[in-house]
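hi!! sorry for the late reply, been swamped w classes. u asked for the two structures so here they r. pasted raw, havent cleaned anything up. first the sequence of the first protein and right below it the tokens
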Amino acid sequence: MNNHHSCYFCAQRRLLLQGAALTLAVPGASLQLAQAEGVDVGRNSVFTKLVPAETIEKSAAQQYAQMLQQAAAQNALAGKDNPQLRRLRTMAQKIIPHALGWNPRAANWRWEVNLIGSKQINAFCMPGGKIAFYTGILDQLKLTDDEAAMVMGHEIAHALREHARERMGKNAATGIGATLLSQVLGLGELGQTVTNYGAQLLTLQFSRSDESEADLVGMELAARSGFDPRAGVSLWQKMAVANKGAPPQWLSTHPAGTTRIADIEANLPKVLPLYSRARAG
């Protein structure tokens, strides 16, 4: 929460949010240099440059706040002392410092983590670091801390790699074509275009390649934070079992099954040393 899993961009997100908003402070977090080890997923898409990051992040923050208000009205926001919410926020405190090296903007994001009261198996991270988990993904899959960290890392990776910005950039380019491209430096029609596409933040879906990229980046983030990246295998095994009925929201656009697990296993040698180092430290 390609979206992921239909992550946050998934359609039909009926929000029963649990969790008062909390801006996460990250003590001692410093911008990291590009990683010399770990996974390699290349540069961000050129389409991200067609839409200003500030505009998308502002829109995401507004939509996130609206979701929290709706949740509060339904008495569905988990209080700050909720055990599961505290668990997630502690996890985020460990992961976020390692996220900064993937995107310089992340150092200035107002990170938030909230819990969504719903049976849906879902989680997401909006642009700007706005994270939410549905209680269903924690309870129905009985996620361990390592598995939950893999989910959180995956979602954060979507935001760091600016997959929403990329998808919106492609949509904008398709929508007004040459006019957009000719106006992009001075914005011109771009401002209105972003406004129009802003409403799609909750329905925007990521590509299969975006999902695979988020798997790898998320696995590295979890490993650097001291969570066992091998949990990605058990996580997707659990998802496969849950998928035998109706596909969970989180899986609606995801490449799942043996291929996904094989990709994770193939990249484990790149991140297990990071995990070992984090545990030793």
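now the second protein. again sequence first, tokens right under
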Amino acid sequence: MTDAAAAKPEATERTLGIILVSSSAAVFGLTGVLTKSIHADPLTTTCWRGFVGSILISLYVLWRRHRSGNRGTLRLGWRGWLLAVEGALASIAFISAFKFTYVANVAVIYATSPFIAALLAWVLVREPFRLQTMLAAAVSLCGVGIMVWSGFGTGHLFGDGLALLMTAGSALYMIMVRAFRDTPVVWAGAVSAFLLFIFGWFVTDPLAVSARDAVLLVTFGASFALSSILWTEGARLIPAPESGLLGSAEVPFAILFAFLFLAEIPPVASMVGGAIVLCAVFAHAGRDWLAARSQRAASNIS
């Protein structure tokens, strides 16, 4: 087989990976719009999102196992259960944040999770903290500070605080995923979603929703599962720096959808802070992508 023929399937896989990860970012960007469009309280919302999402993700996991012939255990162990519980708590804060502040604020604050994960990894396990990550984290922190400061006296500060809490939880989840490499992460995600359903069932009345909300809740759960599946499939086909760069597109998608469907325009301070954070995020992800690309090119030449 010639080098050109060998490169063709690889290029096709890369294109498919880009499409899948980009589609995942777009679907995930609908989270804020769906949350604000649902009249039910945050716990009821997370309850049904978890129920529908857990079923669909579980079906995906079982299909994947059957297709690949992998009969490995789905036993979570204490690490998997820790992942599931931590993910469930972060999800509650995530959904609640959208109810109390602008979609743009939540999306932009969430975009800083890789930097917080790097900081936590350095503090907890002494993982090296790169200079470029340190600089990007400092810049993004300034942007978040501007956004949060603008929330004082407006009633949105609580939502911004929940978004920060959720982002810290998501960052901790990233570290745990890297540390627990033998844990079936996608299956833990399905269990996490089902825990949300069980928790919501006991503390709220999930059946007391309107027909309109019921349709939106099912759609929300399906979109959550779809974005997770698209990301999982796409990330298998492209390098991690590229998937990270494309995944960052969920932030502008979220802001765009909030404007189109909710006519939501955040205050000037939020837009300024958001622009600072997005510049830091895309510059950092783009630098990683370029470095990985140069490394691949050098290896192909050698």
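hope this helps!! also noticed smth abt the second:
Residues 28 and 227 are 6 Å apart (CA to CA).
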